[in-house]
Design goal:
By secondary structure, this protein is mainly alpha-helical. It has one domain. Helices cover 87% and strands 0% of the residues. The protein has four helices and no strands.
């Protein structure tokens, strides 16, 4: 791993924690794919910064648990014309 990849993993984690963002939002902000964000956070970050990994993992688990609600709200908004 290069220094930039390790730094990107830390920057992604900090962004997600600070903004309570989703993987999709972080990917858009940093100009990388969702797969890259996920790989950085779940595979690379634990070796670089274990404490930061545990913080971001809690937030990712929460986002995963709530995603069906966000999807339902988006569908409702789409068909109500909001």
């Amino acid at each position: 791993m290069t220094e930039s990849i390790e730094q990107r993993a830390c920057d992604l984690a900090a962004y997600i924690i600070e903004h309570k963002a989703t993987v999709r939002a972080a990917a858009a902000k940093f100009g990388v794919s969702k797969s890259t964000v996920h790989k950085d956070l779940t595979e690379r970050l634990p070796t670089v910064n274990r404490a930061l990994y545990h913080e971001v993992r809690r937030l990712l688990d929460l986002n995963k648990a709530e995603r069906h609600i966000r999807g339902g709200l988006a569908t409702r908004k789409k068909y109500k014309g909001e």
